């Protein structure tokens, strides 16, 4: 039985939790929201990611902290979900939203934000919890120069 909730509000709560985990570098918090059979088009690579092992390999290629590439040395300060829509189709939720990534350069100056459009397919487990089965990230405006 489907819960009597607004799917957009439920998905918004889930993706805000996921993005908070990203900003705090808490991959276990993120992974708890993902299906073990996840597929993902990440904005940083062309290949489709299949499952958690490939996601871990993608994370390793990205590096983190001092391992991150110095091509665009910025610190992401906020991830803001905008214009979320969600609809239930059978036992599946299809959601779309825009994500704005705010950031600062090495001198603490704001840079123009990154904007991406995102689509996710979410399923509900036997316990009623939603997980992301597929996500597609598409950067439309990359992080830019000083504002």
List keywords for this structure.
six-stranded mixed beta sheet; 147 residues; Nuclear Transport Factor 2, Chain: A; single chain; 3 helices; alpha+beta
Q: Radius of gyration, rounded?
A: 16 Å
What do the pLDDT scores average to?
90
DSSP helical segment count: 3
Question: How many E-type strands?
Answer: 6
Number of domains: 1
Shape, per Cα inertia axes = globular
Oligomer classification? single chain
The share of residues in helices is 10-25%
- Kindly report the CATH topology: Nuclear Transport Factor 2, Chain: A
Q: How can the largest sheet be summarized? A: 6 strands, mixed
Low-confidence stretches: none
Question: What is the CATH C-level name?
Answer: Alpha Beta
The class by helix and strand makeup works out as: alpha+beta
